[in-house]
Each structure stands twice: as C-alpha cells, then as structure tokens.
Amino acid sequence: MLSNENIRILAVEDEAGLLKLVVAYLEQEGFAVKGAVTGREALQTFKDWQPHLLVLDRMLPDISGEEVCRQIRRESDIPILMLTAKAGEDHLVEGLSLGADDYVTKPFSPKEVMARVRALLRRSRADRLPQAEEFRFDGDRLVIRVARQEVLKAGEPISLTTAEFRILVTLARRPGIAYTRAQLIDKAMGEDFDGYDRTIDVHIKNLRQKLEDKPKQPRYIVTVFGTGYKFGVES
User: Fold this and answer.
1) Long-range contacts of 62-65 (CB under 8 A, 24+ apart)
2) 85-98 burial, b for 16+ CB within 10 Å, e for fewer?
3) Which N-terminal stretch is annotated as signal sequence (predicted)?
4) To which H or E segment does residue 223 belong?
5) DSSP three-state, residue 100
C-alpha cells in the first residue's frame, strides 16, 4: 500500500487563492501535490507526472474541465474528484456521466475535499479487494479480473472508472441477487460516501454503455423494478 508521501495528486483550479488553499491542505496530509490553473497545463502535467488522483475544477479558462476529464478517461482510470460551481442534481449527475468518480460543489470546506480524497483513495487501492478473484461469464465473453482491476469483453479491454469497477464487481460476485441503491453505495462506494442515490444510476448507465451489446436491453446489469439492480448472467 502506498503511503501518503508516495501518492501524487494533481489539483486543477483557475482561482489562484482557492488552488493554493486546496494544495496546502493536501500537502498537510502528506501527499505529493502539483497545481495547474488551465486545462492545457493539467493535461501536460498529467502526461508528465502520472498522478494517482485528480482534483478537477469544472470551469477552466481554456479547455473545460469536462474536456479534460474526457481526455484523461481515454487513457486512465485514476479517481477524479470534480469541483463545480453549478448547483443542482442534474449538473452533478452530468459530471459523473463524464467519468468523474465524485464531486464537491462550491463553496466548499477544504476539510470536505480532504474527506472525499481519502475516500476515493481507499476505494481505488487494489489491496482492498481480494487478490485472486476472476469471474467469467457468457462463455468467457466477459471476464473480470479483480486483482488487476481489469475487464475484458470478447477479449478486448474495457476502460472503467474506479467507481464503475467496484459496482460491477459487487454485482458480479452474486449473480441474480438484487441490490438496492443504498446497498450498492455501502458496498461499492463506501459508507463515507455522501451523495445522491441517483449517482448509482449514472454509473450503471455508463457501465451498460461499455459492457452491453444493446444498452437499452441489458443482459449483464439488469434493473429490478422497485428494488435496484442485479447481475443477470450466470457464470
């Protein structure tokens, strides 16, 4: 397990004072931190430094936070905590749809950011998951390798966020068993998660887009009306 001083965090915020505050709090926790004030600087720093976690402002002066998130998600599944001044559930759910794992709305307490960062890091560490598990479904068409945090569909790797992966593993461990949204939040997101139940729906939608041949007629992740979701294919 990495100690805090070995964990690299990139904080992206165009308000210099706010960036300085976030960086200071992260450094007080012992993390190695770099800051960026533009989207272009963030993407270059990400490429050169390969951080373990990204704190990303949604509103940036050049490339939007949404586009930064999209580009990073094409090549990495690192946890992304999005900072947004846009209030309302729809805006927050939209941020998760872009590939963010969690969000904090402005104005926020730096302590809240630290709590979310710690929670994301705990969920992303592979050593919190059983190391030998491998699930095969659909005549080996879908393979989930827990230790590697790897998912293959028809032999091709599928890129999932940390939250998506943990939700998928939770469901795949017990095919046919229905989970409520609250149970999925507890088992996959952690008891310290503080967000909307609807965030689970967004992650499920993203999983279906990536895993299902027909996302609107899912076979793997099935809705159980009045309850939540279950994994619908036996191994």
Assistant:
1) 62/38, 63/38, 63/39, 64/39, 65/12, 65/39
2) eeeeeeebbbbbeb
3) none
4) strand 221-224
5) coil
Structure tokens at 151: 């998912």
Asked if residue 113 lies in contact with residue 22, where contact means CB atoms within 8 angstroms, the answer is yes
- The Cα 108–Cα 55 span in angstroms is 13
Which alpha helices (DSSP H) does 185-227 contain, by range?
Answer: 198-211
Largest CA distance in the chain: 55
Q: pLDDT tens digit string along 3-20? A: 677 899 999 999 999 999
With the CA atoms of 221, 77, 67 and 6 taken in that order, what torsion angle do they form, in degrees rounded to the nearest 10?
150
Is pTM beyond 0.85? Reply is: no
Under CATH, domain 4-125 is a member of which superfamily? Response regulator (3.40.50.2300)
Q: What is the pLDDT of residues 22-66, one digit of tens each?
A: 999 999 999 999 999 999 999 999 999 999 999 999 889 999 998
Tokens of 74: 């094409």
- pLDDT averaged over every residue in the chain: 85
Helices (H) and strands (E) in the chain, counts: 8, 12
Fold of 134-231: Arc Repressor Mutant, subunit A (1.10.10)
Which residues of the chain are in CATH 1.10.10.10 domains?
134-231
230 pLDDT higher than 60:
yes
Contact by Cβ (8 Å): 101, 161: yes
